[in-house]
Amino acid sequence: MRVKLCFLMLLTFILGQAIIAQKIEIMDWMSNSYLGIQMTEITKDNYSKYGLNSVQGVAVEKVVENSPAAQAGLKPGDVIVKFNNEEVTSVRKLKRLISEVAPDHQVRIKILRNGKEQELIATMGKRSLTSFQGIKLQIPDVEELRKRLPKSEDDTWFDYLLNNKRYIGVNVMSLNDQLANYFGVSDGKGVLVTYVAPNSPAARAGLQAGDVIMEIDGKEITSIFDLSKAINSNKEANIRITIMRNKSKHTLVVTPENSEQIPQKLVEDASES
């Protein structure tokens, strides 16, 4: 089971390093979401190629046939400038925004096509390992892979992925301005719980879909990464989660479990093909 989870965690990162010019296929393991595009950065050297007057957005290089992107009407050459009302400034940011939307949820994608602005609606799909058919990967051992990767601020993130051993059993997504207002989060910070696994540590502690996680042990949570890092920062202790529910703050105590204790069904869902 541990091997399956590690494979899912590493696969997207490896692909991102292997594809030339930062063309990344968006199939992020963190939310199991799938849009079905390859993209590239807009730079001062190529912005005119896309009919732009300046550097902005991210260009769509390829659209996977029958994917959510294709069904929404995205085409190669489109420039994505906003995703769910958030400005798109890089491949990395768009990748994160896509990963934070649960499968089967609709998203608004604002694009520039031939210099004209359009808005498309896409329904996110569920990523499966069959999405990688035809791609042959030889995955080195962990230490060898770490040596091959460029040294950057992401090293901490990569080390975290390899050592992530605790889970509470929730799916979450980031808040945009409208969601923050709806759930009563005035500063717009926090992550929205979209699913709580039955009999998970989160369920036993009383977390519910629709709660907004704002803090863990007094540390502000503004992203999925913040949430996961906070859960795993202390390998043994309980965690105190501050949430917003019905526009009122509550504090819950959750006892995370080791990932080896994740129910078999959750693992099978994560590696569904």
- The total of helices stands at 9
The CATH superfamily of the largest domain is PDZ domain
Distance between the termini: 15 Å
Q: Report the order of strands and helices.
A: HEEEHEEHEEEHHEEHEHEEHEEEH
Shape: elongated
Residue windows where pLDDT falls under 50 for at least 5 positions: 1-31, 129-163, 263-273
Strand tally: 16
Fraction in helix: 25-40%
Question: What summary fits the major beta sheet?
Answer: 6 strands, antiparallel
Report the C-alpha radius of gyration, rounded: 19 Å
- Please report which band the strand proportion falls in: under 5%, 5-15%, 15-25%, 25-35%, 35-45% or over 45%: 25-35%
Structural class by SSE content: alpha+beta
User: What is the annotated CATH architecture of the largest domain?
Assistant: Roll
Average residue-wise pLDDT = 75
The CATH topology label of the largest domain is Pdz3 Domain
Tell me the count of domains: 2
Which CATH class of the largest domain applies here? Mainly Beta
Q: How is this structure best summarized?
A:
The chain contains nine helices and 16 strands. The protein is α+β, with helices and mostly antiparallel strands and 273 residues long. It is elongated and about 55 Å long.
Describe this structure in words.
With 273 residues, the protein is of the alpha+beta class. It has 2 domains: 2-129, Pdz3 Domain; 166-264, Pdz3 Domain. Helices cover 27% and strands 27% of the residues. It contains 9 helices and 16 strands. It has helices spanning 2-18, 68-72, 91-99, 142-148, 155-163, 177-182, 201-205, 224-232, 264-270; strands at residues 33-34, 37-41, 58-63, 79-83, 86-87, 106-113, 116-123, 125-126, 166-167, 170-174, 191-196, 212-216, 219-220, 239-245, 248-254, 257-258. Strands 2, 3, 4, 5, 6 and 7 form a 6-stranded antiparallel sheet that branches. Mean pLDDT is 75; it is low at 1-31, 129-163 and 263-273.
